[in-house]
Write a structure and sequence with these properties.
Radius of gyration: 19 Å
Shape: globular
Helix content: 10-25%
Order of helices and strands: HEEEEEEEEEEE
Largest sheet: 6 strands, antiparallel
Structural class: mainly beta
CATH topology of one domain: Immunoglobulin-like
Strand order of the largest sheet: 1-2-11-10-7-8
Distance between the termini: 72 Å
Number of strands: 11
């Protein structure tokens, strides 16, 4: 009986390890202007509306490129019931972008990346008792002389 419970525990740990390994995702979006946005998260990638628009979901935030621009669009998988704030911070926890979130509109305004330096950022949407977050990496193309 003792070896059976040890075997069950080992199987449970092995299964948990496999499940965790399957949830890590890295993505890269390229804009027509040449700018790149890389994301790294703990949720599976999801494709909506065919191959044109790729959406990554993590903790309730979808981030996808706005066609023909240096902007990204944000959408939320949960409907807000209270006003909130969207905050984008760099690795030093310095706020580089902030906007208010309206509970009537489940998609935030486009985020223009033109004034944000290349680097890794944390995007947080805070509303009521909830905080949704996603790690985003922004990379711009090198210009050839």
């Amino acid at each position: 009986m003792k070896s059976l419970s040890s075997l069950a525990l080992a199987a449970a740990l092995l299964t948990a390890g496999v499940a965790q390994a399957q949830t890590k995702v890295k993505t890269k979006n390229k804009y027509e202007s040449g700018a790149e946005v890389k994301t790294k998260g703990q949720a599976p990638a999801v494709t909506l509306d065919g191959p044109i628009r790729r959406v990554e979901t993590l903790s309730g935030i979808d981030i996808f490129p706005k066609p023909n621009s240096n902007s990204v669009m944000l959408s939320f998988t949960q409907q807000f019931t209270k006003p909130g704030t969207l905050v984008m911070t760099d690795y030093k926890n310095k706020v580089v972008y902030q906007q208010e979130l309206d509970p009537q509109n489940n998609t935030g305004e486009p985020v223009d990346l033109g004034h944000i330096s290349a680097g890794t950022y944390l995007v947080e949407a805070k509303t009521g008792n909830y905080v949704y977050w996603k790690k985003v990496r922004i990379k711009y193309p090198t210009r050839k002389s």
